[in-house]
Predict the structure.
Amino acid sequence: MPGDDIRHLDWHLYARLDALFVKLFEAREDRTVQVVLDRSASMAGSKWEAARHAAAAVSWASLCSLDRVQLFVADRGLRAEGRPARGRGAIHRIFRYLQGTGTAGGTDLLTVSKGLPPARAGAITVLISDLWDPAGVDQSLARLAHRGGELHVLHVVDRRELDPSHLSGDLTLVDSETGAELAVTVDRTMRQDLRAAAEEYFATIDDLCRRRGIGLFRLDAADPVEDRLIDWLRTADELVRRGASSRVGSLRR
Amino acid sequence: MNFANPAALWLLATTPPLAALYFLKVRRKRVMVPTLLLWSQVVQNQRTAHPFDRFRRHLLFLLQLLALLLLTFALAGPSIAGKQFLGRSVVWILDGSGSMQATHSGAARFELAQEAVLQGIGRLQGGDEGMVVLAGPEARVVASFTRDHERLAEAVRAVKPTGAASALADAVDLASALTRSRTDRTLVVVTDGSDASLQRVVEHHPGVRTELVGRDTANTAITAIDLRRSPTVDLESELFVTLRRYGGDAGPVGVEVTLDGVLLTSETVEVAPDRPTARVYRGLGSTGGLLRVQLITGDALPLDDAAVAWMAPPRRRRILCVGCTTLTGRGLAVDPRFQLTAADASTPAEEATYDAVIYENAPVPAKPGAPFFALGPAALGAEALPAPAPWPTITTWKRTHPALRFVDPTALAITTARAGAIGGWEPLLESDAGALLSTGVHGGRRGLVLHFAPTDSDLPMRVAWPVLLLNSVGWLTGEEARGQERTVAAGSPLVREGWGRDGQTVALTRPDGSVLDAPIRDGVVRFGGLEQVGVYALAGPGGRKERIAANLVSDLESDLAVLPPAPPDAETTVARAAVAGRLSLLRPVLLLLGLLLVGEWWLYQRRYRD
């Protein structure tokens, strides 16, 4: 059509089809995937391993999609791993960082939400956390959801913490983050009540995420992590859809 | 509330230390958890919903403490005032007389009685107590009051009947006295009714129950046996035997008489029912021994079909009289049992050939050759008698000693006597100056010492003189227990004097071979009723021996008719009395303790183990 830029003619198609076609291109902006990894003390153990695996997987998938990945670690505050990473080669840097990072400190998701850089439209924020925030997660998740972009929460749990059949009798429980102590007598009733409380808490989180349009995936660290991550990555539709392939449009004369 | 053992309450003092140990010991295990968010919420919810749940933590400890309190309580033996139902007290009086050994269809009456008592014991309830008394010649408690019914039954099975007549009334009196303090008692007499005192028992002890065993059975028995000196032939004896038939018809009965197992005579005697038949047997020989009369009947009670009598060897006792006066010689000559030999002096070897020696006006050697009677000696061997004392006055004497039997020394006039104690000797006749007649052992020989010469008194003028002489010589030679005195009815007590000093023992060997020892007290040795039929053997100090024959010679025991029961009084229904007493709380406390422990176990399983 008149006005088309002849530089965008697809000469290969012309040679084959003896017709003129104009290549169409979408303007592709850089997308940043912010991975926020909760490294508070409550994440210690199997959950931390699962969380690190998840962070590495998300980072790799994003880098493969030519997205930029910004890794943050969060406890009572927020700390960036470094400059946003681009390209597959950057994964090694991310791996090294994840390997060298351990759990410590408490949880303050509200401070984390305030500290995260604003997200552009189309950005994705992935929060990998066990969501054990003494201040609650409602406000912090709401802030994260309203920052812009998409928010996905990978809720890392370990069902063995919530169904402590290995605990019984008179115990003094010590909070790994605050050091607070609680004397309890663990019996069957106590364990039943704990399971019920956990289910109720998870239901609350499910409802919260659903209302705010937050993608929620619950990862049980007691299960094999790799399979669950693949399932999660597949269901994270945007990440798969925005892969290396490009959209090809046709320009008809 | 009362406590039988209040000292056990001191166990409560262990409670505070235990509690302290518990709370100190409860070092809770510290467990790191990711967060206390949910735990705190759960604990708070529990405290709100179950405000007393804070005690659940210590519930097991509280239960254990409560168990300790209950245990202490139980050990203290708590009881409260209240009414309690006492168990019955039952006494069985078992007839152990000779007639109970009669057999019917192979079973003895005593076995039937034992079975009846065992059945009664089997009907006892848990709190009932029982006692068994055996009525023999003496009443004997076979088993004292006990609630151990098995032990009671064992005692009944082990008891044996006697061969003598029983004294049921004495046994019932004994049982009644032993149960006087018991409000709920029952006395049961198990008998064949042969005891003549049974009617008296029923009359004097209302409420006594009588259980009869056995059935009427004809019986032929020896009801009397007696051995006497022949009035016509010196040194010979005659055996008198009385036979009787109870029930049935008249008929012949075979009779055998043996002497130490050798048949002397055998005959058939016609015995009519209910009329005694007497027989006399002579020509029993001159050797002495055990005479036995045996009836050949095969009836239900063999115990009364035989009787024994001990016949002493009918020989003269040889007495050596050293230095005897005419008065002494004449005193002994009246009794044909003694053959007197006079001598002026003697040696122990010569004396040993005699049965006894009399020293009158002659010194007593250090070692006499035979038992001796010294009349007025100055010394016994080298031991001098006390110095003469003038005109001693008789004060006391042992009437029951064989030497003084039928001797009356009252107002005996004695001019001078060496009155006084001889070391180790027993005084038989005493005066204000000391002993006048003593007995003891000198030189290994039993002896009697008259502390004065007969001629220094008016004794030879008295009837007592020959009696004293013959008694003393007879006692020294053992002649006084001849014949009739050695044959007794079974059940008779056995009493002997002059067998030794106080504190020494005499052994009685029963027909079954068992031996019973009895001490000599006040010069007398006593044995209880001779329950068994047969020959008993006595053995005392110094080698003294005697044999006694015991026979069941009793009309009542041989008459095997089972008397109809005495008219019973109105049956006394012995109700279980309710009396004021104390109710023990031990069982309920222990039950509660058991339930508590079970509950604690269940709670622990439920709480800590899924």
In short: The beta strands of chain A are 32-38, 68-74, 78-80, 124-129, 150-157, 169-175, 181-186, 215-220. Confidence is low (pLDDT under 50) at residues 239-253 of chain A.
